[in-house]
Amino acid sequence: MSLSFQINRRRMKIESTEITVVILKQKNINIIVREELGHLLLIDAADCREMFLLASLFKHSMESHDVIFLEREDDSKTDLFIFNGAIKPLALKDLRKIKTSMRFIKPEIYSLPLINSYDERIWDTYGHWKYDEQLRVKADKDLGLINASQLGFELLVDQCSYLASSFSGHAHFNWYSTKSSIELIIRNIARNN
After folding, report:
1. What is the reported pTM?
2. Cβ count within 10 A of residue 63
3. Rounded to the nearest 10 degrees, what angle do helices 48-64 and 150-165 cross at?
4. Total number of domains in the chain
5. % the chain with pLDDT above 90
6. How many angstroms separate the CA atoms of 149 and 84, rounded?
């Protein structure tokens, strides 16, 4: 039986580029994003179900090239944009335009297939060197972004699936980020002892 999750996708144009954006409220999906101390971006998933949802969102963005926007509910959290900058080059002004104009664009309903297990086949071709500097992570108190390559998304999908299937509580991605990036930490709060 295939599990799925209903998401809203919105199409818009930024200059001459058409983009599709998936917007989810962090509170509704139990995934919270915070920037801390000026050098950490924390993504906290409540438990395994939410971690598989996060893995599914990364996979969706990798395959469809949609921009994922996780919208905060209050000022103690951070808005997060996830995208492949090589395919959809977006500047901060573009992200702010997306954020302010999305409520005026009619959404289309999309059924997101959910990942529900960890696929260990990644170890057949794994080489830590191929994931080096595949993530660009930037954040301030209000806005965070993860600009990932295809390999970066593959890494994120694998790690989130692993965090949901194992008793590991968190993963650090600073080895896979560019030198100018802040550290990214993804945590499964229910298993993070």
Report:
1. 0.94
2. 11
3. 160
4. 1
5. 79
6. 6
Token pair listed for 33: 């994003």
The structure tokens 């919105």 sit at 10
Handedness of CA 29, 183, 97, 109 (dihedral sign): negative
Closest CA to 192 of 35, 71, 83, 45: 45
Read off the pLDDT of residues 160-185 as tens digits, 9 standing for 90 and up: 999 999 989 999 999 899 999 999 99
Distance CA 21, CA 12 (A): 8
How far apart CA 117 and CA 39 sit, in angstroms, is 31
- What are the residues facing 13 on neighbouring strands? 18
Helix (H, G, I), strand (E, B) or coil at 72: coil
CA 95 – CA 74 distance, rounded (Å):
18
How many Å apart are CA 33 and CA 48, to the nearest integer?
16
Query: Count of alpha carbons within 13 Å of 8, Cβ hemisphere only?
Result: 12
- Domain range for 8 is 4-191
Query: Are the CB atoms for 80 and 70 separated by under 8 Å?
Result: yes
pLDDT tens readout for residues 103-126:
889 999 999 999 999 988 877 777
Label residue 160 exposed, middle or buried (CB < 10 Å: 0-12, 13-18, 19+).
buried
